[in-house]
Design brief:
The protein is mainly alpha-helical. About 80% of the residues lie in helices and about 0% in strands. It is built from eight helices and no strands. About 40% of the residues are buried. It is globular, with a radius of gyration of 17 Å.
């Protein structure tokens, strides 16, 4: 494999740990793993890993109420750049978390194109969880604009998509 392969493996492992620790709310471990993974990913140009680690750091910051730090981690991931894109499996999760952070920061102007991109992505892939995330983000935008009835309708759409995901589940 060589040194590059070992570094990429280490970066991916650290990014994965950061995601798990962020979901568990283990701030210190998530930050340590996420920052380590981001450093390695940047050094090797491993964009997929950088998205994973920065997503974890953004999610953690958002869950801790530090919305500006969350935006700092998430927004660069969703800004379009020539030749750089989100891996489709990460797109809905990353875009929806970025929207939530931007709305929480009161930045509807930057959130709107991210919501539009998420809705387009959800339509294109036809995955119910992505459709639910898009509808939830649309509801956040509508609620921020004061259109509570339309926001409620969008939440119903999100719930319907989620119910579709869970149809046939025996839990």
């Amino acid at each position: 494999l060589g040194q590059a392969g070992l570094t990429i493996g280490e970066a991916w492992g650290a990014a994965t740990s950061a995601v798990v620790e962020a979901h568990l709310g283990n701030e210190e471990d998530a930050v340590r793993a996420g920052e380590h993974a981001s450093r390695l990913a940047r050094a090797d140009g491993f964009h997929l890993c950088l998205v994973r680690s920065e997503f974890a750091l953004g999610l953690l910051r958002l869950s801790l109420g530090d919305v500006n730090a969350a935006v700092d981690h998430l927004l660069p991931l969703v800004e379009t750049e020539e030749g750089v894109s989100l891996w489709p499996a990460h797109a809905a999760r990353t875009l929806s978390t970025a929207v939530e952070a931007l709305v929480a920061a009161g930045d509807a102007e930057r959130a709107q194109p991210v919501v539009d991109r998420l809705e387009e992505h959800a339509r294109a892939i036809g995955v119910p969880s992505a459709e639910a995330a898009a509808a939830r983000c649309r509801a956040l935008m509508l609620a921020q604009d004061g259109d509570v009835n339309a926001a409620r309708d969008s939440i119903e759409t999100a719930l319907d998509a989620t119910n579709c995901c869970c149809a046939g589940s025996t839990s």
